[in-house]
User: Fold Rhamnulokinase from Paenibacillus silagei.
Amino acid sequence: MTYHIAVDIGASSGRLVLGQLVDGSLQLEEIHRFSNGFTEQEGSCFWDMDYLLNEIINGLQQAKLRGIHECTLGIDTWAVDYVLLDAEGKQISRVYAYRDHRTDGVMEEVGRLLPPEKVYAKTGIQQLPFNTLYQLYAHDREELKAADQILLVPDYLYYRLGGRKMNEVTNASTTQLLDLAARDFDAQLLEFLGLRREQFAPLTEPGEDLGFITQELRAEYDLPECRLICVATHDTASAVLGVPAQKDRASAYLSSGTWSLLGVELDHPINNSRAMAANYTNEWGAYGTYRFLKNIMGLWLIQEVRRLDGGRFSFAELAEQAGECPGFRSLIPCNHPRFLNPDDMIQEIRQACLESGQPVPQATGELARCIFDSLALSYRSHLAELEELTGELTQVLQIVGGGANNGLLCQLTADVTGREVLAGPTESTALGNLAVQMIEAGRMADIHEARQTISQSFAIQSYLPQPVPGLAELLLRWEQLHPGADVHN
Ligand code: LFR
Assistant:
C-alpha cells in the first residue's frame, strides 16, 4: 500500500490529509476539510460524534474518487474528552466538551479529598480543570457506573470504524489516571471515582495494527480498503512527533494551535515538586518518550475574538491589522482561568485591561495585538521556567502548527524571548500521525528518520530576535499582571 491518510481533528476544524513519500520527500495533500466546534445545549457544551464520523466517511469517499482503493489510516484529536458505551457498544451519553462549566470548582473539591502532591507524583500530569479525572468526578454517578466502556474521542472513532476497543496511551495519559511507575490506570484513582479497570480497554501503543474498516461500512459507503493503524491519537503527541529534526542545537517546541503547548521531549518524566509548582505535565509520548510541557491559552483567544466579530477577517488579516497597531500597549495574563471559556471573550479581554488600568483595546486589530503581545510574553516566562526545570538552555524555539503561519506572533516571540524562532511545518500534527503509519508500513525505519525526512521536505522560516525598546520596563509591567496565575489556580 502506498497511500497513508491522517485524520486530524482539532477543536475548531478537522481534515483528512494524504501523505506520500515521493523520491524520499514527504508530500501532503489535503483531501477533505471540515469545521468543528462544540455546541451549547441546555447550558452545557457537547461535541457531536456522529458528525465527526460522518466527515471522516465523507473524506474517505473523496479519497476513493481520487483513485485511492487501499490505504492505511490514523486518527488524532484533542485530548481528555470521553465517550461512555453500553455493553452493545452504543454511546450512552452525550460527549461533554472539556470547556464545559460543569467542572468549575471540581479540581479544588477533588484536591481536598485527594492530596494533589500524591496525584502528581503518581501521574506527573499538570492540574487542568478539564482533566478527565475531574470530568468523570463531575459526571452523573449512575450513568458512569452503568458504562461498560470508557473510550476517549479518537479511541471511539477507531472503534466505530473498525470495531476494536482500545485506550491509546498518549491520549490516555491526559486523563490524569495513569500511573507512571505501573504504566497502567491507577487502581486508587479508579477506586476514588468508583470505576473498575475493565471499564477501560487495554492500553495500546502507537504503531499497532487495528485491522480493517468493517466490511459493513465499506459496503454501505463505498469506502477504500483502509487498514487502521493506531497512531499517537492525542493531537499534541502527533504534533511533537512531527517536529523536524534539529541540527545539534538545543531546542524547545511550541505546538501552536487552539492551545500553545510549550515544552521539550524527554525520555524520562520530571514529576518533582518544582515541576508540580510550575504546573508542567508529563504526557506520555510514542516510542517511550514524554511530553514535558505546559498548556498556554493559545490561539483560542483570537479564534473567539474572530468568531464574536462575525468572522469578518481571516486570521492572516487579523495578524496584519495587529501589526499596524502600536505594540505592548495593553497586556493580559492570558493563562488566567477567566479566559478558558468566558461568555464573551472580547468583553473579558477589555475588562481585564480596564481592571489593570491599561488602555482598553477597541478595534479588532487592537484586540489581536493585545493577544499576540501577551502570548509572546507568556512564552518568554514559561520558556525560562522550562529551562530551569530541565536544566537545559534553549537556543532555538521550534514553532509548529497553524500558529507557525502567523509571522507577527513568530517575530514577537523571537524578540521577547531573545531566541531564534524556526517556524513550520504548519501540518506537524498530520505529519506525526503519518510518520507512525509509515514506520509501521516499513517505509521509514524510525522516528529519527521520519523527522529527518520532515526537515528535508518542508520550508522552515527563521525569525531572528530584534531588540525590543524598553524591554526591562515592559517585563516589569508584565510581572505586575501576575502572568503566573494559571489555569490551575
Ligand atoms: C490541543 C490539546 C491539548 C490538550 C487540549 C485539551 O489540541 O489536545 O494538548 O490539553 O487540547 O484536550
Q: What stands out?
A: The chain has a mean pLDDT of 97. Residues 253 and 467 are 22 Å apart (CA to CA). Residues 364-390 form the longest helix (27 residues). Residues 10-11, 78-80, 98, 234-236, 257-259, 261, 295 surround beta-L-fructofuranose (CB under 6 Å).
